Each structure stands twice: as structure tokens, then as C-alpha cells.
């Protein structure tokens, strides 16, 4: 039996695609190896958020090249967004690579592996949903469900539309059937995945569908926990917010990328919403789901960002009080509109100084917000042992908060945990043994 190893970089969509790659390879009779140096087939699922190929990825790739020099029979493959963004250049930059494929071509890897010739081949069309391929989940009680591929937005800093194509939604019936299967297999938590998940369904024909319709249908399958990522504020409509207020399984967590608190910068980013519209969405969400956890993405140092613009970003973060945030320093990405914004480039040291101020606000507000959980008993899906203390367990609340706690539970269990402390990042507590005794 031949063996394979996959190293994954980037976002949840890549994690999902790697699970599908592994499922497909196992269906071809391959077995997963613990480490790359034990595998005959060495694969990388790449990210292209940054222009330069991710240094970590290149380091891994060069290690694979050394392994191939020792054993020329080894096959090296590069998939994902970076491969899609450079296409056949992969082979020019790294001549030892045997196969390269974009996110829409994972299935072509099977074709390549079962073909006679093993000369270097690249596959870069946007053809299919990896969601159709067999899967090998990282955890058998949690599953990603890809509901769409691509993105029709044109955020001026983002390469995704050119590496993942235009938006294509998977059919309603197919998705509901997939979740029903997963629930029957014992999956407790499903996360719906899309670059722009809440615009799902608009391109479906003959019948357009809405994202809230899908949420309601998935909830009706009996799944215990339902999440989705990543939404766009422009599509955060009332019907989606009401779904959060009404559906049993839909978790009290919404990730709402802000990117900037300045309407002028949002315009330059082509985010299609203003600061006021964004805050209006936050108010609508909090009106219907008062206890919701809100997280976000923020970019500092976008070309032309003035101190006043940045103050507006700090202002929104202070006002909203996010439960968590992913913060990035802008980096130009060739092939994006913003990469040609020559005026107003922000000196790196200025961007770093702004990032420090932003992190201070975000962490302080997240810590303040997290205190609302102290003294409460929260439902936690156990994911495994704590990363900081092996004697403790680790899991997530419905709000998406990580909890490190003492208890008797096992991965996959849903337990009640009494929260005793909270930081900006995590909660601490103890499993309610009374709740365990009462079942
Ligand atoms: S919504 Fe914007 S940032 Fe998100 S994937 Fe689409 S183009 Fe990129």
C-alpha cells in the first residue's frame, strides 16, 4: 500500500480541501503517513494570501526535494491557491514537483496518480466541488460542508477571486442530504463553508435560494451544532440574524469581518459597506441575539490609511467590543487592484505601531466581554486535551470560545462546564459533575 502525507497552509477552506484530498487518496488505496519522510506521495495544500510563496511552505518543499533526491520514486504535488496563482511557473520555480493543481482540481490528482505517465502536469481549471469527494475528517464528530466555491466580490486587496473563481453554489437538496448523512454518522457539529458563505443560493437555477433557507433546512436535520464561515457584512440580512435567534442548532457566534472602521478606506478596499452600515448590522444582530459572540478581521496599514482612518478603526473595535479578532498588517499582493496603489503606502514601522494599539484595544475589550461567562454553566463540545495543560480538557462553547477545564469527558462529548475565569482568548472551568450524573 502506497503512503501519502499532506501539509496544509491557510484557511478553513484549505483544511476542508485537504480532508477531501485524504479521503480521495484512501479510496485509491493509499494510506496516510505520520510524517512526510515516511510517504511516497508528498503533498502541499498552499495559501496565496501573501505574494511570496509562504516561507514555511518553501522550507517544507525543499525538504521534500531532498527526500526525492534520495528516492527519485517519490512523487511531490502542490495544490491550493498559491499553485493556482502561479500555475505552470510552479515547475519552473521547483522543477522537482511532479503535479500541481488548483483548489477546483483536487480530483485531477487521482487522474494523475492513476495515469501511466508521471511527467510533470498542472491542472488549473475551476471545475468542481471538492465537497463531492470522499473525506477523511480530522475529528469524526465535527465536519466541514462546502456549500459554495469562489467569490464574486472584488475586494481590492484580495487574490481569492482569481485563485478560486466566481461563486458557484452547491444545490440545496445535495447539501441537506449531506448533512443528514453526517448526522447519521454521529457528527455533532457541522460548519458550512464558503468564501462568501451568506451569498449562497443566488446563482441557483431554476430556483434561487436564500442562505437562511439553507440554515433552517440544515437545522431540521437534527444536527446538534451548526456554524458557518466566512460571511460578508453586505449579505448579513435580517432573515439570517433571525435564524440565529430562532434555530436550536445555530450557534451564538457570528464572524463579521470589518477590515477597517473608516468608510473612506472601506471604499478603497471595495468592501461595499460603510462604517454606519456595518454598525447597523451589529446593532441588528445584538437586538435579536443579545448574548452573541462577535468576532472579526481587521487590516491595518492599507495604502492611504491616515491616523484619522485608523482612529475610526479603533473606534469601531472599542464600540463593538469583539469577543475576538484576527488582525493583519496589509501586504501588497501582485494581481490585486490595491497592489497598484502606489500613493500612500504606509511605512512598516507605522503599521506595526498601529497594530500594537489595535491589539491592545481588541484584547482589552475581548477580556471585558468574556467576563459575562464567569459564573455561568456553558455547553462545551470537547475537542481533546488542553494545549497548555495536559491534565485538562479543551473544548468550545456555542459562542466559539475555547474552554480549558477539568473533567471526565472524552473528545466528541457535549458537557456542561461551570466557568470560573476568563481571559481575552480562553475560558477556564470545571465540568459539572451534577449535570454528568443527571445525564
Ligand atoms: S469577500 Fe473579499 S476578502 Fe473575502 S474572499 Fe471575496 S474578495 Fe476576498
Walkthrough of the structure:
- There is one protein chain.
- The chain folds into 4 domains: 3-123, Methylthiotransferase, N-terminal domain (Rossmann fold, 3-Layer(aba) Sandwich), CATH 3.40.50; 137-251, Transcription Regulator spoIIAA, CATH 3.30.750; 254-271 and 278-372, Transcription Regulator spoIIAA; 374-438, OB fold (Dihydrolipoamide Acetyltransferase, E2P), CATH 2.40.50.
- With 439 residues, it is an alpha/beta fold.
- It has 14 helices and 19 strands.
- The structure holds iron/sulfur cluster (SF4).
- Iron/sulfur cluster (SF4) binds next to helix 6.
From the structure above, extract its key features:
439 residues, alpha/beta, Rossmann fold, Transcription Regulator spoIIAA, 4 domains, six-stranded parallel beta sheet, five-stranded mixed beta barrel, 19 strands, 34% helix, 22% strand, binds iron/sulfur cluster
* Ligand roster: iron/sulfur cluster
Whole-number radius of gyration?
Answer: 22 Å
The CATH class of the largest domain, by name, is: Alpha Beta
Tell me the CATH topology of the largest domain.
Rossmann fold
